Amino acid sequence: MARGEGFRVLLHVINGVMVVLALALAAASIWFFCQVYEFTSLRNSNHYLLDYKLYWPQAIPWIFLIVSVIVLSVTSCGFSGAKKSSRGLLTVYIICMSVVVLLLITAAVLSLVFADNKSTDDFVKDTVWDVYFQAKTDNDVAASFGSIERKLHCCGADSPRDYKNWKSEFPMSCCDVYYHGFLDPYTIECEFTNKLANERYGCSTVAAQYARIAIKVMSAAAIFIAIIGLIGIAIAVGLYKALEQRPPPMVVQYESESKKVLL
């Protein structure tokens, strides 16, 4: 029984770790979806009405989110099986966790093969350029694109010099720096000679790099969770065998039956 109790505690610990990691992966996928949507929502929708192509940067967060939810569901089965010492629940847990491990590895491979490459760079570049052209005629899009420039510390679509063809100076989002002195803060001049603005990368380059980093991190997290899942399977098998070898409970004889045995 001591051995079975040790497996039970270890299974609880492993499932707890997997719950934390799955929640972190789900949060990361939601964050990545919001970042991609921040760009795609500003595009000209008329350009994409008949576009049925699968864009992996938009699909990746959904893949990881679904896998995370499945992991959370299977770990709940593991908690129940360990708490109730149920061989049936442990069998279901072992089978389902094996499937989950395959799903996690598949999600990571799909991300690294189809998303962590030039297709993501092209998708981000096309999206940023579309938003950039929209900003020329739409003040709301221009304000939103300026917020993106401030957040990512980028300027223009491909480079800060993109603004030189249609503006008299850089937008303030490219020179978003304030000097705080004894008096009120004031903004610096944002002319085309501004050194800070000219040293910034274009938003397509910065956004693509952040997207590639996020894809690598989520893929690595999925593989790490898969490794933890394999450990959980091994512990569940150990607990299953320990329950199988548990000695049968002793039958307590009543007093009358004991007297019959003595006679």
What report would you give on this structure?
This protein is mainly α. The chain folds into two domains: 1-120 and 210-247; 138-205, Cd81 Antigen, Extracellular Domain, Chain: A (Orthogonal Bundle), CATH 1.10.1450. The chain has helices at 2-40, 56-84, 87-115, 118-137, 139-152, 195-199, 203-244, 255-262; strands at residues 178-179, 186-187. It has a two-stranded antiparallel sheet. It is elongated. The mean pLDDT is 89.
Tell me the quaternary state: single chain
- What is the total tally of β strands? 2
Q: Give the helix proportion (percent range).
A: over 70%
Strand content: under 5%
Quick check: average pLDDT?
Answer: 89
How many helical stretches?
Answer: 8
- Compute the separation of the termini in Å: 36 Å
Summarize the biggest pleated sheet.
2 strands, antiparallel
Low-confidence stretches: none
Number of domains: 2
Give the radius of gyration: 29 Å
Q: Biggest sheet, strands in spatial order? A: 1-2
The arrangement of helices and strands along the chain is HHHHHEEHHH
Give the overall shape: elongated
- Structural class designation: mainly alpha
